[in-house]
Amino acid sequence: MTTEPGLRDRKKAETRSALSAAAVSLGRKLGFDGVTAEAIAAHVGVSTRTFHNYFSSKEEAALFHLQQAAFEWVDLLENRPADENFWDSVRYLLLEVVTAPERELAETIETARFIEETPSLLAKKLAFDKSLSDEFRRVVAERTGLDARRDLFPTLAQASVGAAVSAALAYVAEDPEHRSARAVVEHALQQLEQGFNTPLPGPSPSV
Fold this sequence. Notes:
Transcriptional regulator, TetR family, mainly alpha, DNA-binding, transcription
């Protein structure tokens, strides 16, 4: 009996995701230098050969979840309705997708923090950040009818939105029990809309 392609693809995606999660979780527990491909594979219950069918290295595995989420967000922005205002598209992406409760944003934040504290991962993340920034600028340019290389706006939008989200999530991480990621990101976007001539107080703590 032939396995349905859709089911096979889902199983592959689940295995890839599990290996990535194991690389991060073992890295936090043991220190990333102490993690091996063999240990990651054993943690998931697959062979080392299977691990290497999915990832060329433990670094690639550890970065996968974060990279997948980031490029998924860019794809979602690209596929918003063509006649939708660019800023409305950004607000939708950040408030209805990125900070949605089911997205396990706290886990993504912790993964990003772990990566930034691990030198061997940080170097690879910086290279990934460059490719992500380029892709975001391309999407901004397409949606606004501009040229990503000639016009400033795509680069300015990418840098501004990225900085606002990074600042908001760092702010949330300082007191996650009383600070809502969605509310803080929304506040950060409001501040961008207002401009820095009008500093906004808050946001108020969540209950």
